[in-house]
Amino acid sequence: MAYGLYSHIQSNRRRSVVLLIGLFLLVYLMTFAGALVAEVVLGGDARLDFLINAAVRRTLYSLPWVTIGTIVWILIAYKFHQSMIDAITGGQEVTRQDEPRLYNLLENLCISRGITMPKLKVMESDALNAFATGLNEKQYSVTVTTGLLTRLDDPEVEAVLGHELTHIRNGDVRLLIIAVVIAGVISFFAEIVFRALFQGGFNWRGSRRGGDSDRGKGGAMVAILIALALIAIAWLLSIVIRFALSRQREFLADAGSVELTKNPDAMISALRKIEGRGELEGSTSAVMEMCVDNPRSGFADLFSTHPSVDSRVEALVKFAGGHDPGPIALPEPQHADGDETLDQSASSGPFDQAGTSPSETPRPGAPESGAPKPFLPPEPPIRLGSDPLAPRVPGPWDSKR
């Protein structure tokens, strides 16, 4: 079983590399579409074959610069992508002293498999989700929401951490970030082309290159339509490839978590609790694609970045021997400054009649709120640091004779 899992991981990595090469080809395709638009906007109307040949020459001339620009874009993302993600999500790095429970769970998983421990970050959110980021061992980090920490028990949190560690071990995080960066390049190129086209005034009615008798006319509109079609195809393919990179890896990450924790039931129950509760308010689609679960989906699930929780749970039950408890209902999160607490404080004041805070929950075995409080003396029987021979205040502990 381990051999099959690792062979599938290697095969998936090879397919991912091919897809990333395809993304670079899409950048060059966008360059040709932009050159075709530039020939029409700047050069005027001409025969279609003349415009295409001119666009090919312009593309070949600009390929080195396009390649350099794309590499610079990737280098910028390589250096600053983590700070940009933290700015969007508000994730804060924590230490063992800040989050001992979470830190120890992640450290134990890393030690058990000899993995370099990534940075650990916590994001203030009621959503139940987590994600991993980074392009190398020095940058890898795992971010967990406070909602997930509050509402999942230790085995379930450990299963989620194992899921994210598997993404890091398999190289999923690095490939996904690169794919997102290149897709961003394509979107950037598409915006430039559209601005040049629609803000350039469609200036192809008169030729600006007098003396070119072989230019002819009538190909400008067809060339524009071809360029728009190429841009649309490149943009659509870049999105589909991005989603395919994420969708295919979730099953492997679930299996890797079970391999690390030896607890398929914890992974199943974690997925059931996270199901439908993972929306990170204010986060971009690129961040949601990195999460354990992405509730955002598109038309007929074509643009869904993750397989459904049902299919993931079914795979864990079938191949890992887990047990599916079905959908799990969770109580709504309680906020200290929420509306419910404010209503209670407004009706009963900061303390109720028994002298306790409304938000306090009585401990098992504690006296009832209406019971009389035991008598307490004004001073303790022994004051530390005082003279033992000095007279003391009599109390109920003194013998009465």
Structural class: mainly alpha
The end-to-end distance, rounded to whole angstroms, is 80 Å
The amount of beta strand, in percent, is under 5%
Tally the helices. Answer: 11
Q: Percentage of helical residues?
A: 55-70%
Topology as H/E string?
HHEHEEEHHHHHHHH
Work out the number of β strands. 4
Give the biggest sheet.
4 strands, mixed
Largest sheet, order of strands side by side?
Answer: 1-2-4-3
Identify the overall geometry: elongated
Mean pLDDT over the full residue set = 78
Q: Low-confidence spans: pLDDT under 50, at least 5 residues?
A: 204-208, 338-374
Q: Determine Rg (CA atoms, Å).
A: 31 Å
Question: Care to describe what's here?
Answer:
The protein is built from 11 helices and 4 strands, in the order ααβαβββαααααααα. With 401 residues, it is mostly helical. The chain has a domain at 2-89 and 171-320. Helices cover 57% and strands 4% of the residues. α2 (48-89) crosses α6 and α6 (172-198) packs antiparallel against α7. The longest helix has 42 residues, at 2-43. Strands 1-2-4-3 form a 4-stranded mixed sheet, sandwiched between helices.
Blueprint of the fold:
Elements: H1 2-43, H2 48-89, E1 92-93, H3 100-113, E2 119-123, E3 130-133, E4 141-145, H4 146-151, H5 154-169, H6 172-198, H7 220-261, H8 264-274, H9 285-289, H10 309-320, H11 339-348
Parallel strand pairs: 2-4
Antiparallel strand pairs: 1-2, 3-4
Short summary:
The protein is mainly α and 401 residues long. The protein has helices at residues 2-43, 48-89, 100-113, 146-151, 154-169, 172-198, 220-261, 264-274, 285-289, 309-320, 339-348, and strands spanning 92-93, 119-123, 130-133, 141-145.
